[in-house]
Amino acid sequence: MDLRRDEVLLARPGDRRPGPMTAGMDRQEAFATDGMWSGFVRTEPGMESGWHHHGEHESVIYVLTGALRLEFGPDGSHTVEAGPGDFIYVPKGAVHRESNPSSVPADIIVTRAGTGQSTFNVDGPAGQ
Fold first, then answer.
1. Domain of 63?
2. Which of 9, 13, 11 has its CA nearest to residue 107?
3. Reduced to 3 states, what is the DSSP secondary structure of residue 74?
4. For the chain, how many structural domains are there in total?
5. Which positions fall inside the Cupin type-2 domain (predicted)?
């Protein structure tokens, strides 16, 4: 959606555009500016995404439905699990992958602040 900095805008579900692609995730962009990205993401039950990071963007994820497991850290050795009502903060450049361990679709809202490209798909995290 084209943004004008001098007006309030509304993005309804039909207004969302496909967001940056990562295997296993349906990202839908609601708004994007030079310094911010916000949208809706759905993952199906049992889904595991590809490894990725968000470059110079830090992200905040809010879980609406289902469950979200986020793997990160050296060789993906750290895990955070979240459910409805939980927030997750992901720092700039953190390589991670997401999965939905629940039996229902996981719907999440994501807002990113930063500059440049917002999604980079990679082979996996580096070990330490």
1. 38-121
2. 13
3. helix
4. 1
5. 40-110
